[in-house]
Write a structure and sequence with these properties.
Largest sheet: none
Shape: elongated
Radius of gyration: 22 Å
Mean pLDDT: 92
Number of helices: 9
Length: 174
């Protein structure tokens, strides 16, 4: 078996090529792209006279339309809501992806609007509350169900209403 080939240090054109390759393969944000490029510079080194600026490359990709933080936020928020996640979890995910607050605002507002439906979607998938096969009187099981809804980013009031609903009786959102 041959030893792995040593990669040459990056320069400006190589950094641009890496950025283009990344954005063609993945939906991303400026923050995630800049982090990826900075990691590559750390791993491979830098051979150019001017210092590396991954954030500037990420901004240029955004200016060219290859990176769209607002579109990413909308898609990610909708995908998480379809899976049953609440507003807090959507906000955490967008923050971790490096989406600025103004770009995330529309996605978070949509998550707030769809919060009840998302909570019911998760309850249906996990067979909690109105989607359970039988009424749960065991406090440990109810606590586990409540914890699952809270970990998914739903607020305590919503989680309690769903967990306390008897099987077959879907509560109204209020």
């Amino acid at each position: 078996m041959r030893p792995p080939r040593a990669l040459s240090p990056l320069d400006r054109p190589a950094l641009e090529r890496l950025a283009l390759r990344y954005v063609e393969r993945f939906a991303t944000t400026r923050g995630k792209l800049a982090g990826y490029l900075a990691r590559k510079v750390r791993e491979r080194g830098w051979a150019d006279a001017l210092p590396a600026d991954p954030a500037e490359v990420a901004e240029r990709m955004a200016a060219l339309g290859y990176v769209d933080d607002r579109g990413f936020a909308d898609q990610k928020g909708a995908a998480l809501a379809r899976r049953g996640y609440g507003v807090r979890r959507v906000a955490d995910s967008l923050r971790a992806a490096g989406v600025a607050a103004d770009d995330a605002a529309a996605a978070l507002e949509q998550a707030r609007t769809d919060a009840w439906d998302s909570a019911l979607r998760l309850a249906r998938r996990r067979r909690i509350g109105p989607f359970a096969t039988q009424a749960t009187q065991d406090p440990k099981v109810r606590e586990r169900h409540l914890a699952a809804l809270l970990r998914a980013g739903h607020d305590m009031a919503t989680a309690r209403r769903i967990v306390s609903a008897p099987p077959g009786k879907i509560p109204s959102p209020e």
